Amino acid sequence: MQSFIAACVVAVIIAIGAVYVLDAYQEPAEMAYASSTSVRL
Question: How many CB atoms lie within 10 A of CB 34?
Fold first, then answer.
């Protein structure tokens, strides 16, 4: 039982870390799809 609780705690910590890592790589749509032709999205 103790190892199951430890695994759940580790899974939550990894999920929280993934949120911060993925948030750092995310860009707004205006920046991600910007082009030199000045097309509005």
Answer: 13
Q: Is the pLDDT of residue 26 over 80?
A: no
DSSP-assigned states of every residue in 1-41: -HHHHHHHHHHHHHHHHHHHHHHHH---HHHHT--TT----
DSSP 8-state secondary structure symbol assigned to residue 12:
H
Please tell me the distance from the alpha carbon of residue 8 to that of residue 28, in angstroms, as a whole number.
32
Token code pair at residue 33: 């799809």
pTM over 0.70: no
